[in-house]
C-alpha cells in the first residue's frame, strides 16, 4: 500500500469512527466504531509517540484481561471509546473550520493592544475564550502573533509575558469550558455530578486563576502608543468578530445543555452533536457563498485516537473492575475523601511533569475514585479533577500546548514550566486542592 493510500485509509477509518460515534445509539454501532478506531491506530503505528504506544499496550493488556475475566464489560467499554473518539474528532473538525476565519486575525491583533497589564489579561482571557471552539488552534493563532512580534522587535518581556498568557489562558479552558474533554470525561466517570454544578464552581475558579496570573509575570516598560498594532476601526465593527465567535460558542453551549437537560442525552453525546451541527452549518454556509468545501484529513490523529479513545476504553474497564474487586459496599474512611480531593490536582500535575497526558490521569482517577466517592460530595472530586487538569495543561513541559508554543516561538517548554510557571502552579495547586477538599468535607458531612 502506497503512502498516500495508507493516509487516505487512516483518514477514512477516523471519519468512519466519527460517524459511528454519532450513531452509537444504534445496536452494535458502538462496537463497530471501536474496531475502526483500533484499525486506524494500528495503521498509524509508526506515527505514535512513546507515551501513546505505552498506553496502547496497557489498553491491549486490559482488553485481554477483560476478555477472560469479565467479557460482559467489553461492549460498554467499546461504546465509551467510540463516543469520546467522536467527540475529539468533531471538536477538531470545528477547530479546523473556524481556524480559517478572517475574524481570528482581527481578534488576535486587538489582544496585543494596550498597557502591559491590559495586554497580558487580554491575551490570557482571549486565549481562554478562543480555546472553547478552537482547542489547540487558539495556541497556534496566538503563538503566531507572538512570533511576529519577536521578528519585528526581538525577544522581550512583552513577548515572554504574552507567552505566559497563552499557556495560562489555554490551561484555564479545561477548568471551565463546557466543550472541553476534561469536563466531558469528568462527567462520564462521575455520572452523579451535573455539568452545570461543576461549571458553577469551576468558572469562578478559572477566572481567579487568570487574574492571579497578572502577579506572576515579568515587569515590562510601557510601549509607545504607536508601537502596538491596533485595528483602525471603532464601534460595532471593532467588536463584530468577537460577537460572531461568542454567538457560535453560545449556540453550541445552548444546544449542548438542551440536548443533555431536555432530551436526556449523555453529556459527551450532547457536546458531539452540538459541535457536529455547528460544523454542518458552517460547511453549508461556505457552500452557499461559493467557497470550496473540503474536509481535513484525519490521518495525523493517531496519537489523539490512542490517548482519548484508548483512555475512555481503559477507564470504563477500570471502573468495572474496581466496582467488582472492591465490592459495592467498599468505602474509604470519612477523613480520607477530603485528603484524596486535595491530592488529586497534585497527582495530575506530577503525572504531567513526567509526561502523562491529563486524559490518562483523569481516566485512572475517575475510574478508581468515581465508583467509591460519596454521591453527595462528587462536586469536590469533579472540582479537583478539572483544576488538576487545567494546571497540568498550563504548567508542565510535556503538554501539547507547551510543545506547540515552543515550536512556533522558540521558547523552551522546560523553561516555561520550571521558571515561568512553577511558583504560580504550586500556589494554585494548594488553593485548588484546599477548595476541593473543603467542598468534599462540607458535602460529605465528615
Helix-strand blueprint:
Blueprint: H1 3-22, H2 29-43, H3 50-69, H4 74-98, H5 103-111, H6 116-134, H7 136-153, H8 157-176, H9 181-189, H10 195-212, H11 236-261, H12 267-288, H13 302-326, H14 336-353, H15 358-369, H16 378-395, H17 400-409, H18 413-420, H19 422-444
Helix pairs in contact: 1-2, 1-4, 2-4, 2-13, 3-13, 4-12, 4-13, 5-6, 5-11, 6-7, 6-8, 6-11, 7-8, 7-17, 8-10, 8-16, 9-15, 9-16, 10-16, 11-12, 13-15, 14-15, 14-16, 14-19, 15-16, 16-19
The secondary structure category is mainly alpha
First-last Cα distance: 62 Å
Mean pLDDT: 87
Domains (count) = 1
Low-confidence stretches: none
> What sequence of helices (H) and strands (E) makes up the elements?
HHHHHHHHHHHHHHHHHHH
What does the main sheet amount to?
A: none
Strand composition percent: under 5%
Helix proportion range: over 70%
Counting H and I runs of at least 4 residues, what is the number of helices?
Answer: 19
Q: How many extended strands? A: 0
Shape, per Cα inertia axes: globular
Radius of gyration (Å): 22 Å
Task: Provide tags for this entry.
single chain; 446 residues; mainly alpha; 0% strand; globular; membrane; transmembrane helix; transmembrane
Explain what the structure shows.
- The chain crosses the membrane at residues 12-45, 51-69, 81-99, 119-146, 166-190, 196-216, 242-261, 305-323, 335-356, 368-391, 422-443.
- Keywords: Membrane, Transmembrane, Transmembrane helix.
- By secondary structure, this protein is an all-alpha fold.
- 75% of the residues lie in helices and 0% in strands.
- It has one domain (3-444).
- It has 19 helices and no strands.
- The longest helix has 26 residues, at 236-261.
- The mean pLDDT is 87.
Amino acid at each position: 500500500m502506497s503512502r498516500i493510500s495508507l493516509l487516505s485509509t487512516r483518514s477514512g477509518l477516523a471519519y468512519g469512527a466519527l460517524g459511528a460515534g454519532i450513531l452509537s445509539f444504534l445496536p452494535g454501532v458502538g462496537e463497530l466504531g471501536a474496531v475502526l478506531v483500533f484499525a486506524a491506530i494500528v495503521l498509524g503505528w509508526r506515527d505514535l509517540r512513546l507515551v501513546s504506544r505505552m498506553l496502547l499496550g496497557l489498553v491491549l493488556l486490559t482488553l485481554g484481561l477483560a476478555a477472560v475475566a469479565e467479557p460482559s464489560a467489553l461492549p460498554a467499554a467499546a461504546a465509551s471509546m467510540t463516543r469520546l473518539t467522536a467527540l475529539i474528532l468533531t471538536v477538531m473538525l470545528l477547530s479546523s473550520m473556524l481556524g480559517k476565519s478572517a475574524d481570528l486575525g482581527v481578534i488576535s491583533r486587538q489582544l496585543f493592544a494596550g498597557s502591559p497589564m491590559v495586554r497580558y489579561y487580554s491575551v490570557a482571557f482571549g486565549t481562554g475564550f478562543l480555546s472553547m471552539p478552537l482547542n489547540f488552534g487558539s495556541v497556534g493563532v496566538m503563538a503566531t502573533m507572538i512570533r511576529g512580534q519577536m521578528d519585528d522587535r526581538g525577544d522581550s518581556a512583552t513577548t515572554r509575558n504574552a507567552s505566559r498568557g497563552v499557556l495560562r489562558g489555554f490551561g484555564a479552558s479545561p477548568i471551565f469550558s463546557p466543550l472541553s474533554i476534561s469536563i466531558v470525561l469528568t462527567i462520564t466517570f462521575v455520572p452523579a455530578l451535573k455539568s452545570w454544578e461543576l461549571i458553577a464552581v469551576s468558572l469562578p475558579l478559572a477566572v481567579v486563576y487568570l487574574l492571579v496570573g497578572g502577579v506572576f509575570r515579568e515587569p515590562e516598560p510601557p510601549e509607545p502608543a504607536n508601537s502596538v498594532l491596533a485595528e483602525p476601526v471603532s464601534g460595532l465593527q471593532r467588536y463584530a468578530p468577537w460577537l460572531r465567535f461568542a454567538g457560535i460558542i453560545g449556540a453550541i453551549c445552548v444546544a449542548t445543555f438542551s440536548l443533555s437537560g431536555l432530551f436526556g442525552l449523555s453529556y459527551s453525546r450532547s457536546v458531539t452533536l452540538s459541535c457536529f451541527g455547528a460544523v454542518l452549518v458552517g460547511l453549508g454556509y461556505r457552500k452557499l457563498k461559493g467557497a470550496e468545501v473540503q474536509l481535513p484529513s484525519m490521518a495525523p490523529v493517531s496519537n489523539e485516537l490512542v490517548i482519548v479513545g484508548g483512555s475512555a476504553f481503559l477507564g470504563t474497564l477500570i471502573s468495572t473492575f474496581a466496582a467488582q474487586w472492591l465490592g459495592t459496599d467498599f468505602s474509604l474512611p470519612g477523613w480520607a475523601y477530603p485528603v484524596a480531593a486535595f491530592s488529586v490536582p497534585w497527582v495530575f500535575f506530577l503525572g504531567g511533569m513526567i509526561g502523562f497526558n491529563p486524559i490518562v490521569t483523569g481516566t485512572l482517577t475517575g475510574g478508581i475514585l468515581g465508583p467509591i466517592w460519596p454521591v453527595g460530595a462528587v462536586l469536590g472530586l469533579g472540582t479537583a479533577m478539572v483544576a488538576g487538569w487545567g494546571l497540568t495543561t498550563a504548567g508542565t513541559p510535556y503538554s501539547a500546548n507547551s510543545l506547540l508554543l515552543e515550536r512556533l516561538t522558540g521558547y523552551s517548554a522546560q523553561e516555561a514550566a520550571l521558571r515561568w510557571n512553577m511558583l504560580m502552579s504550586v500556589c494554585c495547586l494548594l488553593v485548588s486542592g484546599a477548595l476541593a477538599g473543603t467542598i468534599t468535607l462540607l458535602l460529605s458531612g465528615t
